[in-house]
Specification:
The structure holds 2 protein chains of 2 kinds.
Chain A lengths: L1 H15 L2 H7 L2 H37 L17 H7 L2 H32 L6 H9 L6 H11 L6 H8 L14 H26 L3 H9 L4 H12 L1 H16 L3 H6 L11 H10 L4 H32 L1
Chain B lengths: L1 H5 L6 H28 L3 H4 L15 H9 L1 H33 L5 H10 L9 H10 L6 H5 L6 H13 L2 H9 L4 H12 L1 H17 L2 H6 L8 H12 L3 H21 L1 H12 L4
Helix pairs in contact in B: 2-15, 4-15, 5-9, 5-12, 5-14, 10-11, 12-16, 14-15
Classes of the chains: A mainly alpha, B mainly alpha.
Chain lengths: 320, 283
């Protein structure tokens, strides 16, 4: 590799980054200048996109949240905190935030526990490895539209498989996605099925990093499978569990796709998420200014939850 | 992975119980696929009649697939998804790798705070940007274009972080030798760093590709033209149009699911490792 470099480098190097050779010959100051230019050339392309599609919209969105901007361009003037004042007393906004937190709460527990159970069982090394991995992880590869088509069909009150199965045990048919009592549960079931495979893989990777010697030592001391699970496996997985919890909660807060496609937020707004409310106010109601204000309130919620998570996670870390 | 497979397991009650739980879980997880597949192979009449059955009275048929494929939209959408996802992946990996290398190796002014800003931006949910981004796309005349779908999806601060961590671990001596011989930074990056980073680049690329292929909200907002829709967005629109044509709905879902499942079956090992490394990148 080095020989090829020596042969070609003199021809190419000056053309691409003309400053570098000069910089090396010069003093520390010019060297620094050379590194500066090269550095900015490397991050330049990323920064252009970063500024255009992240910095500009986040600043613009903040500005919009203080205007009465609509899609048609009317009412673009500054309105002070009017949007925020309206949002704080908007029952639909609070409801959508509440639905989102409820979804996070009831989906996170099974998404962590089922993933953990799957990983521990697969990691026993029993036959059928590829089948277990494939079946648990495959749904994660599906687009939300496919997941929604599958589960709307599974939950169909008359023709769906779920009611056919529960019917075998004598249960009355349930209108899963049309009944306010069950709609969110249906969404959670579909979501767990869809994304648990991701957490499963993270746990599996972590399990395989636990040193084999720990188990061997425990086995010598006469610890059985259950004892090993409780005193070696679970403690070793603590950092992964913290990570999965953080990632999972942040991801679930942004829920929109499958809910929008399975129930459209219904029945009666019982499954409408915060992101869906932002979307609807903006693209159905065409109130861009108001929608931006709700976006920022939602953003604040995400930041507060993230900070709380990191505070808890790092305090846990200190204890160890 | 290999360590597991070589461990021999005795037949104990515990192991049999574990196998049964694994089996029940696998059946439950495969059930929606199986049910969709069977439905897609029924006639519309059979699919829409009670009682629910796995073996349709009129036998299995490919009619639903013929209908769906004859319509043509599905192939257009698959092409759109492939095109946009590939461009997003190439741009994201390229830009992120260049930036990550600069943060890892180059001592330029503003490096520390810029890196902090980029890492901090991981916390921003892309969903809060949809309104201003849509406005920007209107201003740039990119609504209903491929670039309108692609450009806002190219920023992945988390990937910069993951790649930087990997580049940090590459022994600097390898690069210094080449630098002594007069190779430019770009050349060192292209001929030494990138080849050494192939596994992590593949992992990041797979992760970005799956995310782009399945992304719904942004393409949904930015495209109205049926001919420009990606697969997830197009599928969402037909669901309502087809209404009660269950067999066709399921044939569409199966066909739309197929490409990534085939890719997964081919690259299973790499994908699993990729998800594990990128997913754990924050650790």
């Amino acid at each position: 590799m080095t020989t090829t470099l020596t042969n070609h480098a003199p021809n190419h190097a000056p053309k691409k980054v003309a400053v570098t050779p000069t910089a090396r010959r010069g003093g520390p100051a010019s060297r620094k200048r050379g590194e500066n230019l090269t550095g900015w050339m490397f991050i330049g392309p990323f920064m252009i996109f970063f500024i255009l599609f992240l910095v500009v919209p986040i600043v613009w969105g903040l500005y919009l949240s203080f205007t009465g901007q609509t899609l048609t361009g009317r009412g673009g003037g500054l309105v002070g905190f009017a949007n925020y004042q309206e949002a704080l007393v908007d029952p639909d906004m609070w409801r959508s935030m509440g639905n989102t937190l409820w979804f996070v709460l009831i989906s996170t527990v099974p998404l962590v526990l089922i993933a953990l159970a799957m990983a521990v069982l697969v990691n026993l090394g029993l036959p059928g490895q590829w089948l277990w991995r494939l079946s648990y992880f495959m749904p994660y590869l599906l687009a939300s539209s496919v997941v929604s088509l599958f589960w709307v069909w599974m939950f169909n009150p008359q023709l769906g498989l779920i009611n056919a199965i529960t019917g075998l045990f004598g249960a009355e048919p349930i209108a899963w996605l049309q009944d306010p009592k069950y709609a969110m549960l249906g969404i959670v079931i579909a979501t767990v099925w869809w994304t648990v495979g991701f957490n499963f893989l993270l746990y599996l990777a972590a399990l395989q990093n636990i040193p084999e010697q720990q188990y061997e030592a425990a086995a010598l001391d006469g610890a059985g499978t259950w004892r090993q699970l409780v005193s070696i496996t679970i403690p070793n997985l603590a950092p992964t569990t913290v990570l999965i919890l953080i990632l999972q909660i942040l991801a679930s807060l942004k829920v929109f796709d499958q809910i929008y496609q399975m129930t459209a937020g219904g029945p009666g707004g019982t499954t409408r998420s915060a992101v869906q409310y932002i979307f609807e106010v903006g693209f159905t109601g065409y109130r861009f200014g108001y929608s931006s204000a709700i976006s920022y309130i939602f953003f604040a919620l995400v930041v507060i939850i993230s900070i709380a998570q990191f505070a808890v996670a790092s305090r846990k870390g200190l204890k160890k | 992975m290999t360590a597991i497979q070589t461990r021999r397991k005795p037949i104990t009650i515990g192991n049999i119980a574990a196998l049964m739980v694994l089996g029940v879980l696998a059946v439950s997880w495969l059930l929606p696929f199986a049910w969709a597949l069977v439905t897609s192979l029924k006639t519309e009449t059979d699919a829409g009649s009670t009682p629910v059955s796995w073996i349709p009275p009129s036998g299995f048929t490919f009619d639903a697939y013929a209908q769906v494929l004859g319509d043509g939209n599905l192939l257009t959408w698959t092409f759109n998804s492939l095109l946009t996802s590939v461009i997003i992946t190439v741009l994201t990996v390229g830009l992120s790798a260049l930036a990550a290398y600069a943060f890892s190796r180059l001592d330029f002014s503003g490096r520390k705070w810029l890196f902090a800003v980029i890492i901090g931006s991981i916390i921003i949910p892309p969903q809060v940007l949809i309104i201003p981004l849509f406005y920007q796309m209107l201003a740039m005349d990119l609504v209903d274009t491929y670039w309108g779908i692609i450009l806002p999806q190219v920023i992945a601060p988390a990937m910069v972080f993951i790649l930087k961590k990997f580049f940090d671990q590459i022994p600097i001596e390898l690069e210094e030798a080449a630098r002594m011989d007069g190779a430019s930074r770009l050349r060192v990056f292209m001929t030494i760093v990138l080849p050494l980073s192939r596994p992590i680049l593949a992992a990041v690329a797979i992760f970005v590709f799956i995310a782009a292929w399945n992304n719904f909200l942004w393409p949904f907002i930015i495209t109205n033209d049926t001919a420009l829709m990606t697969l997830p967005v197009g599928l969402q629109t037909v669901k309502s149009a087809f209404g009660v044509q269950y067999a066709q709905n399921m044939a569409m879902a199966i066909l739309a699911a197929l490409p990534l499942i085939v890719v997964f079956l081919i690259f299973q090992r790499q994908i699993i490792r990729g998800i594990a490394t990128t997913g754990l990148g924050g650790q």
